[in-house]
Each structure stands twice: as C-alpha cells, then as structure tokens.
Design brief:
CATH superfamily of one domain: Ribonuclease Inhibitor
Radius of gyration: 20 Å
Shape: elongated
Structural class: alpha/beta
Largest sheet: 5 strands, mixed
CATH architecture of one domain: Alpha-Beta Horseshoe
Order of helices and strands: EEEHEEHEEHHHH
Strand content: 5-15%
CATH topology of one domain: Leucine-rich repeat, LRR (right-handed beta-alpha superhelix)
Number of helices: 6
Distance between the termini: 43 Å
Number of strands: 7
C-alpha cells in the first residue's frame, strides 16, 4: 500500500482481503475519512499508531484481522481509546458511552510497532507465513471472492453482485479471473475518488463504449 504515500488527499480507501500487515504508509493521508481493512494480516493494534495522526478519520472497518484477538470488548475499547473521533467501527456506530468506557478499558498506544529485520525486501514474518500457507480450496475462493466483492459494493452503496453472474465459470477461471476482476474493481473504485468532474466524464464515456461493444458481441453470438 506504499502508493498511499503519493495520495495525501484521498478520502476513502478500501483494502479488504489484501494481506496487509503494515499501516505506516497511511499516516500521510490527512484527508482520509473512511478506511476498510477487513480480513488482512494486521497482527498488532500498535498499527493504530499511524492512524492517530489522521484528523478526519470517521469510519474504520478492521474486523477479522489477527489484531482483534479473542476479546472483542478489549479490542473495541482499545481502538476507540486511540481513535476517539470514529463514528463507526466495524460497521457498528460508536456511542458516547463507549468512548467514556474506552478511557478505562482500552489500552493507549504511544509508539509504533516494532518491525522485524528485513532481508531482500521480505520480512521474516512475511516469509514464514507465505511458506506455511496452504492453498485454499477453489470452492472457498469462489465464496470469498463473491463475498468480498459484495462487501466492497456495500461500502460504496452499490448493488451486490448476483451469484448467478459467477456460475458459468470453471474452477480454474474462478481462481484466477474472479480474483483479478475484484482487484481491478476495488482499484477503480479507490482511484475514482481522486478524479474531478472532467475525469469522471471520460470514465463514463469509456464505460458506455465498452458496454455497447459487449452488447454487440452478445447479439452476434446469439
């Protein structure tokens, strides 16, 4: 996510299911208001240190990361103690009572997380987790792919993708094509936030031409 260092004005970021473990590149995104990080590899709540400097952050989705730990209450209280400006955490509204309780039950984070030594661009933890990772069954890849796409759509108030849109793919196509499609879709949604009206009009014209081309192709096949 080092690209975020070059996007200081970005307002919404969705990086769900991306194997992210380090939030340091986000600390320069001073206009960031919504951050979606579900199902990543964030192992320590110390990573919140980099989010404490973001004055406009109001929505954070951090669930299903290792840092959440076995105690949901302690996790939520710690997040809210360090990010008291949040209005919604993990798709659940933050209350004044929770913010008060967080001062008692939450742990204050005052320093960035310690990093392991890095060799050839790979940290020890990354290398070991990659080596020991077992391949997911293709059926699970399909379910996860569809679920995560719909979560991203939901985060942007978009209509969920029907499951029958995926049913015609073979398992091999599911593994490769779906993951590629969802990564491209998430990237487009992310970068669209950086476009002005003129840029969005160009995108709209391109999309219309692409749709017309697909429709002509379908008619020819019929």
């Amino acid at each position: 996510i080092s690209i975020c260092r070059d996007l200081p004005n970005i307002e919404v970021i969705t990086f769900s299911v991306n194997g992210i473990s380090d939030l340091e590149p986000l600390h320069q995104c001073q206009n960031l208001s919504e951050l979606y990080l579900r199902k990543n590899n964030i192992s320590s709540l110390d990573e919140l240190f980099y989010l404490k400097a973001l004055p406009r952050l109001r929505v954070l989705w951090l669930a299903e990361n290792p840092c959440c730990g076995p105690d949901p209450h302690r996790y939520r209280m710690t997040v809210l103690r360090n990010l008291p400006s949040l209005q919604k955490l993990d798709n659940q509204a933050v209350t004044e009572e929770e913010l008060s309780q967080a001062l008692v039950d939450g742990v204050e984070i005052t320093a960035p997380p310690a990093r392991r030594s890095v060799e050839n661009g790979w940290s020890e933890s990354t290398a070991s987790s990659t080596a020991g990772a077992a391949p997911e069954p293709q059926s699970e890849l399909l379910g996860c792919s569809l679920e995560e796409t719909n979560k991203t759509q939901e985060e942007f108030d978009m209509k969920p993708v029907p499951r029958d849109k995926y049913s015609s793919f073979s398992p091999q196509e599911t593994d490769c094509s779906h993951k590629k499609r969802n990564n491209v879709l998430n990237a487009i949604l992310l970068l669209m936030k950086e476009l002005d009206a003129e840029g969005l009009e160009i995108i709209q014209q391109t999309v219309v031409r692409r749709l017309q081309a697909f429709q002509r192709k379908e008619l020819q096949e019929e």
